[in-house]
Structures are given as structure tokens and as C-alpha cells.
Design brief:
Length: 427
């Protein structure tokens, strides 16, 4: 932007410590940061279980992926941790990584016994789990993505060797489809059932086998996502029955009500909107390598729900900030589970789940809003590995917002990345 940097503001605040988040969010942050990074084999075993079922052979790739994802969502562990308002566990452990045997997980499975002692990003995993994970290697040797990408053994061995050494290149796409921001805005608005209904109407208008196959897979995946929410609703209700603290009991009943609606149906309030996005984000991790799947411009698509709840006195700024803070902490519950070479190449734990703040709308108007400031405050207060906050700056960015971005960039720890809208949009 054209406004000069406020040097007096920087000088006055360069030594200022970030304000602590709410007591609840601080407790969630401490709980996550106190955990030992682990390796979870749950998803790998469930995906293998589905793939080995002879009834699933002969189905199209799209349907098999959708059904396998639904199988994982229906059978993975469901946990609600103390003090949580936004629920959803990525893995069977509080902080852990995934293994994708059908994609690029073979090398990690081969290295299973060395995971706890490797130099970069060691991962806690029991001896029994190491045996179970390694035992699936023979099944996936000729069924993983790299093997299927080539039609002869020479190229398969060449590719495996080059990926294993990483001296010239690594093909990250072998790990799955990512580097994108899903359309959470649509899911939040219409819910999984709304997408199923939309696809059903499309089915009635075509006889194209490829389109029909895709539509079928979408319906299967959305059904799995809806059922995933139902499982958390049931878990919250069961926990509420056993809860002796009346405050926490009511929170659990509220969580049950939220998850009974979303992501199956469209969200009606801010809490439901954030919860719907969270469960969808976790579900994507069950399908494919999710570490580079980004929530995106959440200050934009969550804004209507926030402003509606404010107008109806259903929420205040502090409550909305606490919900978003809980979401931000939850993104730190997943870590990459790469091979030893890939982990060393990437420098250990990555920070790829991007939340973008500010910027412009499609008409070129400034899009900065109250949630933009809330997220910027959380970036300053939490300073955790995830999310990776990106700030979009342009010539009409409010000076107060711009000055705050500069101020927190001088604080300790992580700081938002800054992007120039005029330059990037034009290019």
C-alpha cells in the first residue's frame, strides 16, 4: 500500500508481548504443545481393510476412494478433549501424523521401526503399532500410486530410487491432491445434504457414464461426512450423561446440538459454521494428504454468520474469538508423517495450512472486516506452527490494520506472511 510504515508505532510496540488468548484457548494450546508428536496407523489400517475387501474390486477409482473415505470416517476413533468447543480429532492421538499407503506412504511404512529414534521429527509409536504398520507393506507394494504410474519395473525402480534419494527432485503430488482451499463456504451454507441434493438433480440430466460415476462418488463422500458429524453428536451426548460439572455438561449438550446439524445441514450460526468447516477439514485428511489443504479466506465466508449472531445478540466478539482460537489450535493437532529423506528435505515440521486475512473482494473493494482483526490478534497471541497466516495488503487496506500487521511482525515467533494484491492479482 502507499501509506508509510508507522515507525513510531513500531518503536513503541516492538518489545510488547502479545496478549494471552482466553483461558480456555490457552489451556487448549498448552494441552497440544505438551503432547509428544506421534505416528497414527489408524487410517492406514482402515484404508487397507477396505481395499482388501473383494467386494470392492472392480469398482471405479472415484467410487473406491469415496467409499474408502466413508469407511474411515465411520470407523476411526472419535474423541472430544477437555474444554473443547470445536471438536474433531484428526488421528487416534492428540498430536500425530497420517500414513497413506495407497499414495506415498510405503517408505514410511518400511521405516516404521526407526520412527521414534530418527534425527529429524521423531514420532512416538508403540512397538506393536510398528509391527502392524510394517506388516501392510507387502500388500501395498504393487498397489501404491507410484507403482501404478508406470507400466514397467525399470521406471518404477528408477522413480522409487530418485524419490528416496531426493538428490534432484521430489514429486510431492505422489502424496495426494492438495495445495488448494476447498469450497468450505458452500458446504457451510448448504451442508452435505444440500450437495447430495444438487448432485442428484445433475444425475437426472445426464447419461454420461463418467459424470454419473463422479456424481455417485460425491454422494458417497458427502454421506460419509454427514455421518461423521453424527458420530460426534452421539459422543457428546454420551459424555454429557457422565459429566458431573453442570457448565461442562451444558457445553457438551451444545456440542451435540451443533454436530447433530452440521456438517449434514447448512449452518445457522457462527459456532455451527466453524464446526462444519472443522469436520470437513479433518475429513479431507482422511481421504488424501491434507497438510497443504488450506482453510483459506475464513474471515470472508464466516463473516455473515458472525454479523448475524452479533445482531441477534447470540454471540459477542470475545466468544467468536474463542471459537476461532479453538479452531486455530486444532490445526496443530496434525503433523506431517513423511519418510526420513522427505522429512529432512523439508526441514522437519511444516506449516502449510494457510488462513488468509484481509485483501479485496471480487469488485476490488477492501474486504477487511472485524473477523480480519480477530484473526490477526490470534496470530499474535498464539504464534503456533499452524495455521500459516497470510495477510493480503493493497492500497486501500485500512491503516489501523496495516499498522497492526507491521507491529506483530516484530514480535517473537511466527508472523503473518504479507502479499501485495496489486502485484499478485495483476500477474
Amino acid at each position: 500500500m502507499n501509506a508509510p510504515i508507522n515507525k513510531d508505532l513500531i518503536a513503541a510496540n516492538s518489545d510488547r508481548c502479545a496478549q494471552p488468548p482466553s483461558e480456555r484457548v490457552e489451556a487448549l494450546k498448552k494441552a497440544v504443545q505438551s503432547e509428544t508428536n506421534g505416528a497414527c496407523i489408524e487410517r492406514a489400517l482402515l484404508w487397507t481393510e477396505y481395499d482388501k475387501d473383494k467386494r470392492n474390486r472392480g469398482k471405479t477409482p472415484a467410487v473406491r476412494i469415496a467409499e474408502a473415505t466413508r469407511h474411515v470416517l465411520n470407523h476411526k476413533s472419535v474423541k472430544i478433549y477437555p474444554r473443547e468447543l470445536i471438536v474433531g480429532n484428526f488421528t487416534s492421538k492428540r498430536v500425530a501424523g497420517f500414513c497413506y499407503p495407497e499414495l506415498a506412504g510405503i517408505q514410511v511404512m518400511v521405516e516404521a521401526f526407526g520412527l521414534p529414534k530418527r534425527r529429524v521429527n521423531p514420532l512416538e509409536i508403540s512397538l506393536w503399532d510398528r509391527f502392524k504398520l510394517a506388516s501392510k507393506v507387502p500388500y501395498w507394494l504393487n498397489k501404491n500410486a507410484a507403482y501404478r504410474a508406470f507400466d514397467n519395473m525399470k521406471d518404477r525402480f528408477r522413480f522409487a530410487a530418485e524419490q528416496g534419494e531426493a538428490l534432484q527432485y521430489q514429486v510431492y503430488e505422489a502424496g495426494g491432491i492438495a495445495h488448494l482451499a476447498p469450497d468450505y463456504e458452500k458446504l457451510i451454507k448448504v451442508g452435505a445434504q444440500g450437495i447430495i441434493d444438487e448432485v442428484a438433480s445433475m444425475e437426472a440430466q445426464t447419461s454420461d457414464p463418467e459424470k454419473l460415476d463422479f456424481y455417485r462418488s460425491v454422494k458417497i463422500a458427502m454421506s460419509g461426512l454427514a455421518e461423521f458429524g453424527d458420530r460426534y453428536a452421539a459422543e457428546a451426548k454420551a459424555m454429557a450423561v457422565q459429566e458431573s460439572d453442570p457448565v461442562r455438561k451444558q457445553e457438551l449438550l451444545d456440542i451435540a446440538a451443533v454436530c447433530s446439524r452440521v456438517p449434514r445441514q447448512g449452518a445457522t450460526n457462527f459456532h455451527e459454521a466453524v464446526q462444519s468447516m472443522t469436520l470437513a477439514h479433518i475429513a479431507i485428511f482422511q481421504e488424501t494428504f491434507g497438510e497443504t489443504t488450506c482453510p483459506g479466506r475464513i474471515d470472508q465466508f464466516l463473516r455473515p454468520y458472525y454479523e448475524k449472531d452479533l445482531a441477534e445478540a447470540r454471540i459477542d466478539r470475545a466468544q467468536a474469538k474463542e471459537i476461532l482460537g479453538a479452531f486455530c489450535v486444532k490445526l496443530c493437532e496434525t503433523i506431517p508423517m513423511h519418510s526420513d529423506v522427505a522429512t529432512s528435505t523439508l526441514g522437519g515440521l511444516t506449516s502449510w495450512e494457510v488462513v488468509t486475512i484481509g485483501g479485496q473482494d471480487s469488485e476490488g473493494n477492501d474486504a477487511t472486516n472485524e473477523l480480519s482483526y480477530v484473526l490477526l490478534e490470534l496470530a499474535d497471541e498464539l504464534r503456533m506452527r499452524q495455521p500459516n497466516f497470510h495477510v493480503r495488503i493493497h492500497e486501500n487496506t485500512p491503516k489501523a490494520f496495516y499498522d497492526e500487521v507491521i507491529r506483530i511482525s516484530f514480535g517473537a515467533g511466527s508472523a503473518p506472511a504479507m502479499y501485495n494484491d496489486e502485484t499478485i492479482i495483476e500477474s
